[in-house]
């Protein structure tokens, strides 16, 4: 286990969530490593670049607006495995309305990698509940 890598991975996970909540897509794209892969609802989506990611952000925002989403919290983060250049994280995330009520909770696995000196999330897989 690598404590330095673990701290970097958790910091990236928190930065992703902070930038997601502020809808700062440029900063959020910087929390990823590319190609970035997401497995959700039985489908793989690969983002080869930040530009690919930006295109998807518009679609995601529409869905969030329909849910009356206000913010998402990382209610739990745990390191599953870690090495010098890769960390597996287990997260529990809560989507919340403006008043703080949780309307959707889900578990997700993220793989955070160190590429060319940059820690970024390279893979996300979420379970719907």
Commentary on this structure:
- This protein has 129 residues and is an alpha+beta fold.
- The chain has a single domain, classed as Nuclear Transport Factor 2, Chain: A.
- The protein has helices at residues 3-22, 25-29, 50-67; strands spanning 32-40, 43-47, 71-82, 86-96, 102-115, 118-127.
- The chain has a six-stranded mixed beta sheet.
- Strand 3 (71-82) and strand 4 (86-96) form a beta hairpin.
- The longest helix has 20 residues, at 3-22.
- The relative contact order is 0.22.
- The model has no long low-confidence stretch (mean pLDDT 94).
Q: Label the structural class.
A: alpha+beta
What form results from the Cα inertia axes?
globular
In CATH's first tier, which class applies?
A: Alpha Beta
SS element count, helices: 3
Looking at this protein, list some descriptive labels.
Nuclear Transport Factor 2, Chain: A; 129 residues; 6-stranded mixed beta sheet; single chain; alpha+beta
Summary of the model, kept short:
The protein has three helices and six strands, in the order ααββαββββ. It is of the alpha+beta class. It has one domain: Nuclear Transport Factor 2, Chain: A (Roll), CATH 3.10.450.50.
